[in-house]
Amino acid sequence: MEMEIVMKTAVKNQVDSIGGPGFSGSSGCELGSTVAVDAGESAIGGACVLSGARKEDCRSVVSYNIFMRGLFENAKVDEAISIWKLLPEKGCVGDSITYSVLIHGLCKNGYLNRVLWVLNEAEDKGDRLDISAYSSMINGLCREGQLDEVITMLDRMAKRGCKPNAHVCNTLINDY
Q1: Closest Cα to residue 165, out of 141, 136, 145?
Q2: Can you tell me the distance from the alpha carbon of 147 to that of 141, in angstroms, rounded to the nearest whole number?
Q3: What is the pLDDT of residues 104-135, one digit of tens each?
């Protein structure tokens, strides 16, 4: 299935939020370019064509994170998960931001059971999750009215040295 994603201001905002303020995209890929993507095996690695930049220059965990985030925002959950599964094959290692993108996207699309699977996998591998991942999960559980699971998630956060931030506290106050 051929998908064309036009990355203009939205991608700039996503890069800023994923890569942090001032992220300049040192891979040589220009923001505001069009990406033609085949949703199969060649998702990013085989079809990353940005303003004439070499596709090899475009393969980084940041580009995969942006692509997965865009798929989740367009309710393409299975495609986003397939991109996540491609990371090791392409020599990319997901980071805490990758897990945050996955968890947020799955929660936003109503896949709380898959989120637990992702959380367990990350924790089993010894990967550290940031507050954003736990916050998304708590938000999703609150929206579903699952108070016991929210408390379990707060305990899980604390055991891993992750303290609730204002967003988590606001979610708890507003939803309960």
Answers
A1: 136
A2: 7
A3: 999 999 998 899 888 888 888 888 888 988 99
